[in-house]
Automatic annotation (TrEMBL):
Residues 156-344 form the Calcineurin-like phosphoesterase domain. The keyword Signal applies. This is Metallophosphoesterase family protein. Pfam families: Metallophos, Pur_ac_phosph_N. InterPro entries: Calcineurin-like_PHP (IPR004843), Metallo-depent_PP-like (IPR029052), PAPs-like (IPR039331), PAPs_N (IPR015914), Purple_acid_Pase-like_N (IPR008963). SUPFAM superfamilies: Metallo-dependent phosphatases (SSF56300), Purple acid phosphatase, N-terminal domain (SSF49363). The keyword Signal applies. It comes from the Bacteria.
Length: 517
């Protein structure tokens, strides 16, 4: 090795050491947004597409403007390669509602929302639409209606909690999902789309992160617990996000009083049901029992926010599980898609009938349950997996942003979970068999190794040398469950959370890891 190369490597080594040893952790600089950024203009924004109960004939579009635009329209035509396809367009006057949230904390805005239902559409047909006030129009946006009573192949996307770091981190996830499944027909959003229900900035982040994806791939959202919050400090009860019913136009076929937060859609040979796991559990149990008893769809998928089998520690939803699982078992629900736990878990329950028909019992299954997270906030997994849940967990992940592509073709359902950089993380198939439990095909050999906090980029900030030992000796029996380095005008140092069962301690340390009184 030459002397020059040796000297260069020596100084490079000093540079690396100088940047890592004894240095404060790198602190995240969250973006700041000007208030003007989230305000509406006279031009349409926040355009979002959804489908009706029958997506082969109905779809909806919703958008926002200033309150000055009190009359708005949508135009729709069958799309062709000829640029003047618009000659065959139909103009529909929108329903306009005023969103006056000036006095609501974190909303503090006045806007008009406009919505249109497109009805009597032709099945399996590509349409183009635009929205505006007659002078100011959006671009022409295309979507395709569902086939009528078809068992043809189709795919859709499913994402868990967006919630935090929406524009910074969820944007890459949702865009990667589109790259992976550009022909996806709709997107299931399993709750907690934002962190603070009424916060206009966070909703603006959600719309900006998805951009034109929201306007061209149908949204199938259900509310999470973070879509509920008190309207003011004096309010005694939490309220659904004041934006929700203004900015989403969804089927109103759910239980009375829960319209557009609990509903269903029949796409091809699948019925998908969205539930609102925040409120009115008994009412929804009766409703879902009724609509499951009436469906003749080959595939039944249910989505809601709070998992029946929690992925993370200390988040059991026993009452919800004991209410809903017997119904899902009775009607043979195929797949349940959930959020809330900021980690990943996939498992299943036993089929209700142990039929000896030559298929190994391990390859038969009842309902498959999935919990997933798409945003940047992460929790740890439940330490004993799904022990005590009467269910078996097959695959799990920590500290990983994920999206899922679900494909149905006739009697086969394929499930694939991908990381935010497009790596296959989990996969399985379900094969529908007449009057028998589903055949389960595990495909984990196709996926990357399981991810945990221990083998990924640290989520928590690292403590200074010796600080962990000092903490645990002072608090015997506790474990460190959170470390956050703070560097602002009020405090520079570490905020540490320790837990032992139900006990919790919040400790402040200085930059050297010493206790602060």
């Amino acid at each position: 090795m030459s002397a020059k190369l040796k000297i260069g490597m020596f100084f490079f080594g000093l540079l690396v050491v100088g940047k890592t040893v004894g240095q404060e952790p790198r602190t995240y600089k969250a973006p700041e947004f000007d208030v003007e950024w989230r305000k509406p203009t006279n031009h349409p924004d926040r355009i979002v597409l959804s489908y009706g109960e029958d997506p082969s004939t109905t779809a909806s579009v919703t958008w926002r403007t200033t309150s000055e635009i009190d009359t708005a329209y949508a135009e729709i035509a069958i799309a062709t390669a000829a640029p003047k396809f618009w000659r065959n367009a139909k103009t529909i006057k929108a329903v306009t509602t005023t969103f006056d949230a000036i006095e609501i904390n974190e909303a503090e805005i006045l806007a008009n929302y406009h919505s249109v239902w497109f009805t009597d559409l032709k099945s399996d047909t590509t349409y183009a639409y635009r929205v505006g006030d007659g002078k100011r129009w959006s671009e022409w946006i295309q979507f395709k209606t569902a086939p009528k009573e078809s068992k043809d192949k189709f795919s859709f996307l499913y994402v868990g909690d967006t919630q935090n770091f929406i524009l910074e981190l969820w944007s890459r996830l949702i865009r990667e999902s589109y790259k992976k499944a550009p022909d996806a027909k709709f997107i299931v959003h399993a709750g907690d789309l934002v962190n603070n229900a009424h916060n206009e900035q966070q909703w603006q982040e959600w719309f900006d992160a998805g951009g034109w994806i929201h306007s061209s791939i149908g949204a199938f959202p259900i509310p999470g617990n973070h879509e509920y919050r008190n309207l003011s400090p004096e309010a005694s009860e939490r309220s659904l996000s004041v934006q929700w019913k203004h900015q989403f136009t969804l089927p109103e076929n759910g239980p009375e009083g829960l319209e557009e937060t609990a509903y269903y859609m029949d796409y091809g040979n699948m019925r998908i049901i969205g539930l609102n796991s925040n409120v009115d559990h008994e009412k929804q149990a009766e409703w879902v029992d009724h609509i499951l008893s009436k469906t003749d769809s080959d595939w039944v998928i249910v989505t809601f926010h709070h998992p029946l089998f929690s992925a993370s520690e200390g988040r059991d939803n026993k009452e919800w599980r004991e209410l809903m699982k017997p119904i899902f078992d009775q009607y043979g629900v195929d797949l349940v898609l959930q959020g809330h736990d900021h980690s990943y878990a996939r498992g299943r329950v036993s089929p209700k009938e142990n039929v000896l028909d030559g298929v190994n019992m391990r390859d038969k299954t009842g309902t498959v349950y999935v919990v997933s997270v798409s945003g940047g906030k992460m929790y740890g997994l439940r330490k004993n997996a799904w022990e005590g849940y009467d269910a078996e967990r097959d695959r799990a992940a920590e500290n990983t942003q994920l999206f899922q592509v679900i494909t149905i073709e006739d009697n086969k359902l394929s499930f694939e979970s991908y990381t935010a950089v497009g790596a296959l993380y989990d996969a399985f198939d379900l094969i529908k068999r007449a009057d028998l439990p589903n055949e389960f095909v595990e495909r984990d050999t196709e996926a990357i190794v399981e991810r945990r906090f221990s083998n990924t980029i640290p989520y928590q900030d690292p403590l200074p040398e010796g600080a962990e030992e000092s903490l645990l000796s002072k608090y015997p029996g506790f474990e460190i469950t959170g470390v956050h380095f703070v560097n602002d005008t009020n405090f520079i140092g570490y905020k540490v959370r320790l837990e032992r069962g139900e006990d919790r301690e919040e400790i402040s340390l200085d930059v050297n890891g010493k206790f602060l009184d």
